[in-house]
Amino acid sequence: MRAQFVLSEIGVGLRRNLTMTFAVIVSVALSLALFGGSLLMRDQVSTMKGYWYDKVNVSIYLCNKADAEQDPKCAKGAVTNEQKDQILTDLKKMPVVDTVQHESADEAYKHYKEQFGDSPLASSLTPDQMQESFRVKLKDPEKYQVVATAFSGRDGVQSVQDQKDYLDNLFELLNGMNWAAVAVMALMLVVALMLIVNTVRVSAFSRRRETGIMRLVGASSFYIQMPFIMEAAVAGLIGGGLACGMLVVGRYFMIDHGLALSEKINLINFIGWDAVLAKLPLVLAIGLLMPALAAFFALRKYLKV
């Protein structure tokens, strides 16, 4: 097969169907950008989980005098020193526990004032209204239920709370957004495939005389199909390149500069450039292979060669 002939036919096909080729490039670029974005979002959620789950604590809140008067769980009165010592001893014996930190009522009041000093309630609270607590860091954050079962309902314990529950709600929201992006990506992918098939068919119809002559002189099926397949592959590769550009620009603009989220939101450990660069070859490969395969199967039926 002469490479010069194939290349000339690719150029002819792209010029004849310039509008549809442009539509293919745009749709492929958008669908692959969403595909790459969904992969990066999944990596971001995994990074955040690893970062935050390592920092979450299980909080064992102890009964104070106010709880003893209002909360049925503290009907036996405020926690005693003996009960606190026993809770601390039992916590240190548990294999799932990494570290234990005691927070007194005065320390809890101080932390509350630091975080919510502007709140209207801050001026009406007193240290004796705050709860003492044990902040327990687990070796495995998933083993919260072991601590909850051991200490919920014990004398002097008002409640056992796992901070991971609050994070799970956030991660469920992020995962939901990610699945929404995947759904839009799938829709755009279907649109791109339909455009590719129609573009190939229009191109084949406009050159039916040439393909007929090639069949008469004994050209192979692969030789006849190759220019059309390459046209679709070139358009898809351009779209994949644009998608890669969108991912790089998006990471640069949203995290490093422009919105500069890495500077404004210090609580989030954002994914690095290595995660973005690792996805680019996959996006390019899909951009090249997807249109080529779609064109190949469309031509088998349409040209009947």
TrEMBL record:
<feature type="transmembrane region" description="Helical">
    <location>
        <begin position="21"/>
        <end position="41"/>
    </location>
</feature>
<comment type="subunit">
    <text>Forms a membrane-associated complex with FtsE.</text>
</comment>
<keyword id="KW-1003">Cell membrane</keyword>
<dbReference type="GO" id="GO:0005886">
    <property type="term" value="C:plasma membrane"/>
</dbReference>
<dbReference type="InterPro" id="IPR004513">
    <property type="entry name" value="FtsX"/>
</dbReference>
<feature type="transmembrane region" description="Helical">
    <location>
        <begin position="179"/>
        <end position="200"/>
    </location>
</feature>
<feature type="domain" description="FtsX extracellular">
    <location>
        <begin position="56"/>
        <end position="160"/>
    </location>
</feature>
<dbReference type="InterPro" id="IPR003838">
    <property type="entry name" value="ABC3_permease_C"/>
</dbReference>
<feature type="domain" description="ABC3 transporter permease C-terminal">
    <location>
        <begin position="183"/>
        <end position="301"/>
    </location>
</feature>
<keyword id="KW-0472">Membrane</keyword>
<keyword id="KW-0131">Cell cycle</keyword>
<feature type="transmembrane region" description="Helical">
    <location>
        <begin position="275"/>
        <end position="299"/>
    </location>
</feature>
<comment type="function">
    <text>Part of the ABC transporter FtsEX involved in cellular division.</text>
</comment>
<keyword id="KW-0812">Transmembrane</keyword>
<feature type="transmembrane region" description="Helical">
    <location>
        <begin position="232"/>
        <end position="255"/>
    </location>
</feature>
<dbReference type="InterPro" id="IPR040690">
    <property type="entry name" value="FtsX_ECD"/>
</dbReference>
<protein>
    <recommendedName>
        <fullName>Cell division protein FtsX</fullName>
    </recommendedName>
</protein>
<keyword id="KW-1133">Transmembrane helix</keyword>
<comment type="similarity">
    <text>Belongs to the ABC-4 integral membrane protein family. FtsX subfamily.</text>
</comment>
<dbReference type="Pfam" id="PF02687">
    <property type="entry name" value="FtsX"/>
</dbReference>
<dbReference type="GO" id="GO:0051301">
    <property type="term" value="P:cell division"/>
</dbReference>
<dbReference type="InterPro" id="IPR047929">
    <property type="entry name" value="FtsX_actino"/>
</dbReference>
<dbReference type="Pfam" id="PF18075">
    <property type="entry name" value="FtsX_ECD"/>
</dbReference>
<keyword id="KW-0132">Cell division</keyword>
